[in-house]
Write a structure and sequence with these properties.
By secondary structure, the protein is an all-alpha fold. It has one domain. The protein has three helices and no strands.
């Protein structure tokens, strides 16, 4: 019983570490998009990238994305 408790605690710790890593990667991705937006001279591309930053901010601050309807359009525009 004590071993099961220790294993459960160990698993919880691993899950917390994974969540921290996920969060860190999301913030890094957002930072890279901000950097790309600041480097581009194309105003439409910059607008699209800043829209993506808005989506990242919405997700990191609220834990949800309400702007998902515009995501496919933005991604399509970015890959043009």
């Amino acid at each position: 019983e004590e071993e099961e408790e220790k294993e459960g605690e160990k698993e919880e710790e691993i899950n917390r570490e994974k969540e921290k890593e996920v969060s860190s990667l999301i913030y890094k991705a957002r930072d890279l998009i901000v950097k790309a937006a600041s480097l581009t001279k194309n105003r439409q591309e910059q607008t699209n990238l800043l829209d993506l930053v808005h989506i990242f901010r919405e997700y990191t601050e609220q834990g949800t994305v309400l702007s998902t309807l515009s995501v496919p359009k933005q991604l399509h525009t970015l890959t043009q």
